[in-house]
## 1
Amino acid sequence: MKEKKQSLKSKVTYVKKNWMLYIFFLMPALLLTIIFKYVPMGGLLIAFKDYNVIKGVLGSPWVGLEYFKRFLSSPDFMNYLMNTLKVSIYGLLWGFPVPIILALLLNRIRKEGIKKEDIGREAFLERAWAWKKQYGGRIVEQLKKLGSSCDWTRERFTMDEGCSKAVKEVFIKYYQEGLIYRGKRIINWCPKCLTSISDAEVEYEVQAGHFWHLRYPLKDGSGYLELATTRPETLLGDTAVAVNPNDERYKDLVGKTLILPLVHREIPIVADDYVEMDFGTGVVKITPAHDPNDFEVGLRHNLEVINVMTDDAKIVDAYPKYAGMDRYEARKAIVEDLKAEGALVEIEDYSHNVGTCYRCGTTVEPRVSKQWFVKMKPLAQPAIDAVKSGKTKFVPERFNKIYFHWLENIKDWCISRQLWWGHQIPAFYCDDCDEMTVTKESSAVCPKCGKPMRQDPDTLDTWFSSALWPFSTLGWPDNTEELKYFYPTNTLVTGYDIIFFWVVRMMFSGLKNMGEVPFDTVLIHGLVRDEQGRKMSKSLGNGIDPLKVIDEYGADALRFMLATGNAPGNDMRYSDDKVKAARNFANKLWNASRFIMMNLPEDFQYHGLPEDLELE
């Protein structure tokens, strides 16, 4: 037994020291990035019998219905690696993708011609839990067919009782330390999903648009300022025009007043370093309610914040001529009116990056809203230091640039969501005296007036609970034997596309709540794309059902295809021809093995391979 244990230690030590070999073992687990985008499962925890073997947190498999977004981070990877190393697996904790349930349920409700508000929160949650039960089982069966031999009795869900307890504990801890606050700030808003989303959840795409060049006349009649905008509909909320304080062209105009076209509101000319002198005319319209940069300018100059759009991106009633118009419909009408007023100078074609919602692809609308935020600067610095000091390293190393870029430029994290499925924010409000309290309890009585309080209807960003995965699944905040045994882990295996979604957040959460990094190595893999190199998505209809592939070619063929022709951190392309070639190769191995076995003498005994093999 002692010799066996020593052998195991030497094998694991060898793998730790020889990362290229480790990466080679990792390759056969790569599979099928497909239709669902950014669906955090929280991840997996692999646990082993011996303290000296590798403890690893696996990245999110992101699975949904018949489709798998990825496979490298699935239990099958560890099956292969541990079987190769002859390491026995003690247990595995499995997470379930919360947003997939929500997306599927909302789609079903929409097909029925009703809104979630029509059936109410309780009925909606009943449906959601039923769907979780139905599709959670289906996902597990898919993984079993792929050959995953997990300890399924240890399955965990980010909304189960243990994880929910950890979420409340962290929320209240951060709130008491001043790291969580509620305030009115500019956030990313999806007019279709009707919820806020974080900066990490905004996907940028190049869209063809225009620069509308406009004239804003000076109040004293001495002239005008010319500026350009890509969003003339937000003109309704302009509260200033800004120039650079070092721009000689406009120095004498700073402090003067302009008349806002169409609205005819008086707005000031302010000087701010945000304005680039050599971009366009060097003059920028400032709309604090609908642009993140303008919001910061507004704070510096104490400008009024005027919201001109409803939750679903229609013009508010304060502007009767455009009230109820969709933002793009209003844009056309406003441009025509600007032309009629003589304020439109020219229209210039212009392509630029536009933020879209990661769930539905709708163009995001920046807007000022009262939300819950996590103060990120104090949490980010220890996570930066941990990687710079070598406590945690990325493999391949180049991916730490993404990690550093995100943390070094991080803004406060908007964590509240206007959704019903998720961890409800543990804050309560008194409608009689406006008192607010944060508590672990499921109900609260106002400490001032003694009246019952109502809970905040918003839920937490699903990544808030996923960030706690390395320790919440082990029983934290209780000091369990599992927590003492397995934390910190050694290796996180995940895709490069969720470094800022998940890796960053697990790092600062582990350091803050456990005092140690959650893992010492982050092993990054690429994505499987379609034959044309495109990311698999529902809109393109290019997703692959691995079960159909397995039925046609076999699991071995699919896994072998993914094991060949890819390098650490790089994407690979899926094609049926590759799977067919892998199947044919597997058949040749099978037939060759059968031929050898059939022709071995009856008294044949296998004594292992010689230490040195020479080519003949």
## 2
Amino acid sequence: MTSPFDPVADLRVGNVVEVAGTSLKAELSSDVSELTRSYGGRVYPIGQIGSVVKVHFGRRLVFGFVTLLRMRSEELAQAGKPIPPDADQRVMEIELFAEGVWNSGAASLSFSRGVSTYPLPRQGVYLLTREEASILYGAAEGQRPDGADPLVPFGVYVGADAARCRANIDKMFGLHCVVLGSTGSGKSGTVAALLHSVLEHKPLAGESCRPRIVVIDPHGEYGKAFGDRALVYRAYDPIGHEESAGEPISLPYWLMSAEEIRSLVIGKTEAEATSQHNIVYKALTHARMVAAGLVDPAPTAHGTPAPADGDSPDLPRPKAGVDAGALIEFDRDKPRPFSWGEFVNHITFLQAARVQNGNLHKVTETDFATKFKSILDKVGVLRRDPRIRFLMTDWDPAGPKLANVIAQFVGDVSADPDDRRDIRVIDISGLPNEVAGPLAAMVARLLFQYKLHQTPAERQKDPVALVCEEAHRYVPDRGDAEYAAAQVAIRRIAREGRKYGLGLMLVSQRPADLESTVISQCGTWLVLRLTSAVDQAHVARFLPDGLSGMTRALPELAQQEALFVGEGASLPARVRVRDLGPDQLPRSQNVRFSKGWSSARPTPAEIEVVAVRMER
């Protein structure tokens, strides 16, 4: 009986013919008539993309994964070289990723990432048995560090006799991660499986995990998946049915920065101009100063006396007892409350005013229509829109403070110690695009500022992860104005969040549409089936560990199968994500046309019910 990692003749499938750094080519042996090999009662496939092979180098073992299998004639043709009649050899291309030494006395594998000893031409290439694969993955995960255990099991390695695959959540969330997959590949289920695994994990003996995870959910999927372990905040509920139920969110407009307010009020139009920007910025600064008690409120009617100092009427002037230096140091981007009424009054009665006979009178109708009317109209439309009532309700001095808003996402939701709603889902389904972008930006920027203003000790005990489902909507690789604010906020988290304990998980079915700057900052990749060649090529550009060759396997992955690579993975691998019960899955089932079209058409009464919802 052989011990693990002994060279076994039956498992030898070829010889090294070329070595170029960590890449090598191996020619399959002539006795390999089929792409399978039987050993120990098991059948092992040969040359499967992503499968692991080994090369023996004395007592040392060098491991690599298969990235390509093709005929020598195809390789020559691609290089533009003549093809001789005997060019019928089969060539495997392999990427080396690790090495190790098997200690038979201790029955353990000493594993190290990277390669220091390179194979030589004519050395044998061997398949890994399932036992060896299990030992390899276990050794790669290493010993548990002292203190909290960061290794969270969420699936099994494919072809490793169901060896459990564990993600290092310290690295996965600390260095950001991305989950990609075409429609139907199990993407939403994979995200749910990861989060369920985190909730079930016990990093310390007997201590349950209490994660701070915020999910931006554009389709209302995730509230169902976590039951009493999640608190769902609904921004807008056009239907009012039970599955969309959730707590009303408190996310007031005054949390927005000056740029986000400008983007919401003006947007991007052909008529947009710097003068309109300045109108918004001046009104916002004034309104925040009034709420802070630094300046007097704006007039509420025309005909009031003009300022006696001769300066422009819309300039801020300190109220009695306030030092002028306080106005100079005032930062309009801070999340300070302000009243929409004061914002509108400043534009209407100060900016859109002219001095006449010592009093302030309305500018000409032409000037008013050209410069101010569109801004005031847009503010009025936004304040009346029921879809964003949670955002636009006017500030009440007795209402929620900044600390109350932040606590929705990271604090305890009740005094009950058994209330374990650790995942906070922000359901923004039904919101218009011009609001979805600024809302995502507000959440991202609020969490970043919260972490930025913590001390190092506070950050250590309070890490936060932000999950952006359908991330291409919020950080697209194109310049749509409704997403501009979200791009800036999430890009900053991607670049700097790890310093402050703020992790990012991007989830998308369209990798090619994701912001390149953001996606390149993700250190861990979980890539499910991708059928689009454009998406596959885009993923290959960013994959870490020189794994771009593994993208050839992406179109053939089964549902719930994924390539797991990067900092959070012990080593690059093909994994199968764990199964979940029906009550643990997101609400992402597709409508069955065949079943629906077998039913009767809706009755007039049923159509009337939907029409009433539309008219609300």
## 3
Amino acid sequence: MAKIKGANAVLDVMYKWGIDHLYGFPGGSFDSTMNAIYEMQDKIKFIEVRHEEAGALAASAEYKLTGKLGVCMGSAGPGAIHLMNGLYDAKYDKTPMVALVANVPTPRQDINFFQAFDETPWFRDVAVWVHQAKTKEALPVLMDTAIRQAYAKKGPAVLVIPKDFGWQEIEDNYRVSASNHVADNYAAPTAESIEAATKLIKEAKNPVVYFGLGASGAAEELKEFADKFKMPMMSSYLGKGIVEDSFKPYLGTIGRLGAKAPNEVQGHTDLVVWVGNNSPFSVLWFPKNAKVIQIDVDPEKQGKRHSVDVSILADAKKSLRALIDAGVAREESPLYKAALADREEWDAWTASFADDHLKDEGRVRQEPIWDVINKEAADNAVFAIDVGNVNMDHARLLNMNGKQRWTTSGLYATMGYGSPAAIAAATAMPDREVWHLAGDGGFAMMSQELLTLARYNMHVLTVVFTNETLGYIEAEQRDESNQPLSGVIIPDNDWAKVAEGMNMKAFTVHDKAEFQAAVEEWKKMDGPAFIDVKYTKHMAYSTELNTLDDPEFVKYYHAEALHPFSYFAEKFGLEIDAASGASGHSEDKAEALQVQATSSASTPETAPDTTSGASH
């Protein structure tokens, strides 16, 4: 019978599962696997990142973008530990991936040898499955099991491979179970749950839809549902992009990242149709006495974030279709009218800055840059979004069309995610345009991966918004804890020169026209390019404060054209408990936030928020 080396057998299992590449960094304990990669280079492409963390984050990002499992590798000891950040990203975002971890040869284990550790316990908290091969014959079986476990349990699986097993030959007769892997097929809702839900929808005065990532694949049903029952739609941040931003009833993301309208509207509903959403910050939103219809396939999620009146343990697409078919169309409610008018005013206000007529110390505002991105990005572009204020700009200013894709580190929210995610996008989706968008803080953490983009000539545009501060943390210190700024300042840097030193075409821009010209230049190129945008230090509009009755707040944010929500409530006959216009993220937050003016380089301050700790 034919023979095959153990490491080659592991890669062969990958290949038979349709996985033709992996991300990693070589090490002496992985020599046998690196040899297998060399011998199988016609089937398996090795993407050599500059740090194992980047490989793990890339593998996590790949599934988020494609629905297909990614694989990374790390050598014994430090290489294995470096994978942890990416593995935790996958754990928190319920992302299947497999990490191959090396160990020293079996005779040198347990004798305090160089880089020899009992690695399995390290991964027990983060992994859905972790196992070290005890025999060489087990390697292909364990690799097949790791892939199945990752898909089944929606998280990272870890296979530890002793170096000597990778070199040793085994019989080439193992069976791979890839042909048995089928797409998820979730249940349809029960007739009783649909009947109870349609009754609540009929009785509600001001219902809304709140959806998350679990509603992926149900975009048309969401829109039809919102249109038939005249419900404003809001989402978690990770739900952005499921419904195109141009769909008027979709107000956007609730929370600090989101725009004004969703944060105001959420506080005045009496019924929430909660679809595939497990945002931890949703415990801070919606009236406590609001009724909830929750649609989710996971029973553990039912009632986790809010008391629930009707639980629908079923597929989002099937459940929404059943509700559409069973329910009676509604007229526009006062809240629906107020919500759409509030959104329309916000859209007009942000659009008014698109031509860069207001500058902060010669630095370009957010809106002109994102106006160019909206106009220049391909209809099927992929966006790799880092973590920080870039999430806020993305949530509010990028108009996604339903065909574009994006990814970020969601619940784990690790800075430095953008570069590895861009590598994953360019590797797994090479025919699509990739935009890597990051603040200078997040970018600096994984800046070495520009070398990877350049080495493989990936058609990625890296845009770094340089504002010389960890802006998201600065805003937390100012708006929530009302403390002196501490540890948030980033020294200015010539990031374009750094990119040029890493073999990449680079530009430094200060205004919309320069940015437009740089984007056009990249579009003519085959490979990567880099743009350092000298970005405003002025914080974006605070939807946490949102005190339009305060002249200093209005002045600081140039918000003269905006009205508090009480204006829309009165205009459309919506009865509300408080007319302050505050978005009310927490019942414990004071109804009126006292704002005082600070220096031109700072935002208004308010009393400390010690209750919410709100971020994403």
## 4
Amino acid sequence: MTLKKRRIRLAIAIYSLVFAFLLFNSCANNKVHNNATVKNYTPEQFAKNKYMSGGSFSKKGDKILYTSDETGLPAAWAYNINTGKRTLMHADSVSAVYSLTLYGDNDNLIYTMNPGGGRAIHIYAKEGNDITNITPGDNVRATWRGVNDDFSGIYYVSNERSPRKFDRYEYNFETKTSRPVFQNDTKYSTSYNSYDHRYILLHESLTEEITNLHLYDIVNKTSISISPEDNDSYFYGKGFSLDNKDVYYLTNYGSEFAYFEKYNIETKQRTTLVKEDWDIVSTEFSPDRNFLAVYTNKNGRARVKIKDLQKDKFIDIPFLKTAEIEKLRFGPNNKYLSFQVVGYNQPKSVWLLDLETNKAEQVTSSLNDEINANDLSEPKDVTITSFDGVKIPAFLYEPHASIKNGAALVWTHGGPGGQFRTNYNQYIQYAVNQGYTVLAVNNRGSSGYGKTFKTLDNQKHGVDDLQDIIKGKELLASMEGIDKDRIGIIGDSYGGYLVLAALTFHPDEFAFGIDMFGISNWLQVLNNTPDFWAARKKALFEEMGDPKKDSLMLYNKSPLFFSNNIKKPLMVIQGANDPKVHQSESDSIVAKVRANKVPVEYILFKDEGHGIRKKENQIETMTRIGEFLKQHAN
């Protein structure tokens, strides 16, 4: 097929893609019900929704690999495009399996697994029934870096040589051996290497918002900085051109929002390729580099555009009301596109578009058939005016009038630089379906709202960002039908810290709190950062505080040392294998608050890490949260 014909078919296919999405939304919402009522769903019904991710193609382009938890834990599945058959490639009875790629002619599999949810992360090769741990070692952490250019192997980084050093390796499918591509004795983290293996990109994290990008010449052992000397922004490498002459990267240098740029190695000239009004969060080239997919985060919603690089022209995919497009991938020879679709009432699903027939099909379906998508709550954009006049974005989830109970929750996200998106959130939808109004707050320091907003909480964590949360509570209290005395706070990870900080430092603000694996003692966390965080420890200390230089500040922000102030009911949820927030963080705060005779419910999962992966544990989490809310919010 000629390039011209491919372009024409791609353009036609995009419009077919839009039609398919409209059909998808129509089908998703075809269970019409009486608007006077909605149905309450059980934790078991919510847990029957499937987690989906992936969509990578096999070398021949005849199969799509994806991850699904329909068997109880995330596992690797393959979809045969020709036959429509789905095959379970690998599952583990204890740990989540995340698919990476297929290789060879016999459906061989590369996957990654985090045994027991602990610190070790390994990459495995499966051929038939034979499984090889490519990255052995009790404390080894390995991260996938993609398939190489001729599909003969994969790249990955691993700290097997030294706990603090992440070297780059190439694993060969045929020889079943790994060879070092770059021995990283720098203080930087490695990124992409050039196709001729001469260059490698290195990231130097100065702060959470400032990252330098270096180009290292492996042959001559010299390095140049792609980022300018006066850099006050982040530079994030996205790879090399096929001829190894240009470096691609994302940066917000001289701008509030990130844009896509290239750097010519010979001339040292920078050329802006794509710039939008919001952050460009990712890009994806077609294999022949004739097309470029650009992903933009617009106020917590995904936009995707495809650019014809030969014509220097975009083909827009209109933003859909209830669905977002993520992870679009081009198949070999641009024959197929795979992509992920998610909406506030639709968990992530994988789709396939045939660029020759313009036919789109849904490879996976995620929403439990027992749940009517129309019964779920659509988030509304609201703005909170904080104590200092800063405008704080948030999403308001309101229950249907037939089930609204007058109680409410302020929901806090992780990070601290995370962001609430409008895509499906199982726990929020469960709470709203039980009658609770939810305000999900993107407090200062959240990603997605520009460089300035992202830095507003630096070394003010648990202070200024917590005031944003409290102002969110005041907004809820001012709404009709909300009882100001029945507003609680809930959050996970850093959001869990904000829950504890709210109950500790503002003990009269919230009626109760639910902390999911949150930090209670900053001194302990920052003094015990794992070795594999060495490359970003300086940046972490710049943002949060240095436990040696700023010990008093961190002490005063740690709820554990002032837990005698807590007087409202508290629920704490924790994974025993959590590598980020150790069990001791939750054990300590629970013991202290219980000693004060304050009602505390503690849920400790022996088989979880940082997050709740297993469906039976998700069911228990939702059930116990529901019971806690009935007791303390009604």
